[in-house]
Structures are given as structure tokens and as C-alpha cells.
Amino acid sequence: MAGISYKAWAAGLLLLLIIAEMIWSWRHDKKVYQVKETLTNLGIMAGFQLSKFLFAGMQLSILGWVYRYRVFDFEPGILLFLVTFVVTDLIYYWFHRASHVWKPLWAFHLVHHSSLWMNLTTSYRLNWFTAIVTPFFYVPVALLGFPPLMIALSVGLNLLYQFFMHTEAVGKLGPLEGIIDTPSAHRVHHGANPLYIDKNFGGVFMIWDRLFGTYQPETEKVRYGITTGFVSHNPFVLIFHGFIDLFKGKMKYKG
């Protein structure tokens, strides 16, 4: 047991949560899972895990090279990590927002919003090539003097937190709404409803959305997917769909 890595424990926990959500959906007739769609999400997730293995070195190399020219030298410690976490969440907000409003980045991000269902497996419906562009948004953070490993850990924890946001099993969380990202806030983000387009970009904190005018509470039933409708159940079609439309000049925007 002691030889099992923390990654294996984490993967096991996430799998148990997915199974629990499936049981909840079945017992309450919520129909938040669809067999073909779930298999698609798992296929995309497998490819994304491989891409992390392939691109992790490149990402850290870019941030490490920039860090050599840092402006400040900060005292290492828990306080620095907490500040790094908040700063990277702010950067994530703008990266995420840019991924919705700039077509070349939307070509990467489209796959995440193309599902017509919201469940925990949707959280890993991520483009395999996003890692190529992601580190460049965090270059200013490394240049300021925040250690690359702290940046990488903060971003990783940010994405892990968002796993729990992709569910309909949790309702509104009272006073936490509008302060941190919640399942309700993230359902809004995935909505193709006109009211919900381009809303709730924050990864962990909703304060950025409040500050920059993109916060929207959940007030009507969410209609998931992109405005152009169903794309495919083929992971390869979904991953490359946005790029093909971009190069053909047919890119349509969901928001």
C-alpha cells in the first residue's frame, strides 16, 4: 500500500466520485450521463494525460528560462505559495477569457464546451495541445520572480479544483456564490443560453468575474454545448474540429 503513489490515490478518488455521480444520476433519473459521450470523454482524457507527459518538460523549460531573468527574489515559503496561487488564478481568468473571445484560442478550447452533458467526466474534456500555448500566459509571473514549480503546482491545483465544479449533483452554495467558483457558477459558464455566454471565467475565485464584469448567477436552466450544436463522439474529430474550421475560415463562435 505504501508503494502506491499519490497520483494513483488521486485517480482512484476521482474514479470513485465519478461512479458515485453515476449512481446518483441513475437513482434520481437525472440523465446526466450518456454512454457514447462518457466514452468520448474518457478517450479525450487519456490523450490529455499523454500530452501532459509529452509537454510538461517544455512548459517548465520555458518558465525556468524566463525565471533566470526575474525582477525580484522572493523569500520561499507558504506565504509565497499562497500569493503565487492567487496570482496564477488571476492569469488563468484572463487566459480563459481570451480562449473564448479570440478565435485561435477558441480552436483549442472548443472541445471542452462541445459536450451536451454536464458531469465529472466533462472536466477532462481538454484539448491535447493546449499545453503548447499555456506557459506563455504565465511568463509574466515567472518574470516577476515566482518560482516555476510553484506556478506549475498552482495551475495543477486550479485544474484539479475545477474537476469538482463539473456536476449537477450540487446545488447553489449560498454565500460562497460569487466569491469562489462553484458547480452552479460553472454550469453557467458551460451554458449556450444567450444570458450565460462569456460568463464566469474564474478557475477558483469568482472575484475576478465580479471585478471585470463577467459574473452571472444561475437563474435559468442551463443548455449545454456550443451554439452550433452537436459535433461528434469521435475524440480526434473533436480535438481537431476547431483548428480545421479556423484554417478554413469557418470558425463560429460559441462564447
From TrEMBL:
This protein's GO CC annotations: endomembrane system; membrane
Flavoprotein as UniProt keyword: no
Membrane topology value: Multi-pass membrane protein
Record key words, sorted: Lipid metabolism, Membrane, Oxidoreductase, Transmembrane, Transmembrane helix
Domain of life: Bacteria
Chief location category: membrane
Record-level Gene Ontology MF annotations: glyceryl-ether monooxygenase activity; iron ion binding
InterPro entries: Fatty_acid_hydroxylase (IPR006694), Sterol_desaturase/TMEM195 (IPR051689)
TM regions (residue ranges): 6-26, 38-66, 78-95, 144-164
Pfam family for this entry, one: FA_hydroxylase
Record localization: Endomembrane system
Domain Fatty acid hydroxylase span(s) in chain numbering: 81-214
GO biological processes: lipid biosynthetic process; membrane lipid metabolic process
PANTHER family according to UniProt: ALKYLGLYCEROL MONOOXYGENASE (PTHR21624:SF1), STEROL DESATURASE-RELATED PROTEIN (PTHR21624)
Name this protein carries in UniProt: Sterol desaturase family protein
Organism: Paraflavitalea soli
